[in-house]
Structures
1.
Amino acid sequence: KNKMGKHTITEKKAKATCVDMKGHLMGRICGIVAKKLQNGEKVTLVRCEETNISGTHIRNKLKMLDFLRKRTLTNPGKGPFHHRAPSAMITRVIRGMITKNERNHQKRGRAALKRLVCFEGVPKNM
């Protein structure tokens, strides 16, 4: 057993889950996926482009355009970076749902994000 702070890691095989994102609300399903990742499961998301976002199309478009306008004035090349791909957007949503201390300062949070794989469409090996 390895020791990591107050927590101990037990050697066990991680469960793998494949989730079809078609028809799911983005925030609801991402919260469930974030919890699975924190519990040590491997999660694969397919058909990320088919995910629904609640609200009207115009409202969501205005929110996205406002988000795209945010940048560093002195050197925009340093970020923040705004991904347009649906799989990258969902990865960012899930990253925000993993607790801040975990994703930034602990190996456990970084390992949780490494267990996530997102795809647009369904890959041939699925």
2.
Amino acid sequence: MQAAEKEEFRNYLEKSGVIDSMTKVLVGLYEEPEKPSDALDFIRRHLGSAAGVDIDGLKQENLDLKSQVAELTQKVEELTKKLQENEEKKETAAPPTPSDS
């Protein structure tokens, strides 16, 4: 490939956003705290994401939702326990005595 062809191809990649997209994915891989075992799969998944999708925003939303699920699960467990305690109290309470009429 001649220098002119290489330059033309590089310009094509730059204008079409390929270089920018590849750079973002590679920077994302570099900044990943736990490096994936399959770097190529990481690149495929991140290059395959829809345009305009905020991956970092979705990750944060996912963390927030997981936290909310944990809180709600704990609340359900607490309320279930209270309900069981109330039912046990009803069962052990003496039945009401009929009033004299």
3.
Amino acid sequence: MNLMKEDIDETKPEDIAYVYSGYAPLSVRLAHAALQGGQAWKSAEEATKSLPGPSFDERLTSSTGPGAGSRKTSIVFILGGATFTEIAALRWIAKKEGITLPPLIAVRDER
């Protein structure tokens, strides 16, 4: 996972690293890889094996009801808190990937 990017154009961003002026948080890179699927997720899955604790990947689809499959959204759960910048990056990814509904971001912070 490439967390640092040197050549960032903040006027026309092409990568999520622009939100941190060249750094992309691991949480956001993993969410982006999950949205892209395929090879991007396979490399991210390898990276998650070095993290402690279990992980899972669940994809839900709806094939019934009005408008089934016409609108996409994403749900991201982050345990341990998230910064406003990470949330902004997740919203940017959703827009860039053509997700029509804003992402649902759930954060659990231990206090």
4.
Amino acid sequence: ASTKGGVDIETVAAESPAFIIKEPIDIAKGLLPDQIRRVAHALQINKPELMAQAEEQIANLYKMFWETDALQVEINPLGETPTGEIVCVDAKV
């Protein structure tokens, strides 16, 4: 994950690696709730009502990754709509 949306993630990784949010996942345990919260917080989602939505989106992304046996799930961006919803706007699986 990264707060630097709208740009090529490989460029961010090469030029500004501090902006890449990494969370190692134990394959036997899966993505844990505290890990989901850390990612949502690192994405600077600070409103409580949006945090719950972001956590749900992150959990659903991992679920999709796992259940489809994907190599990668990429969204850009994760955004807030004018009506206050957190959504995955564009995706690549």
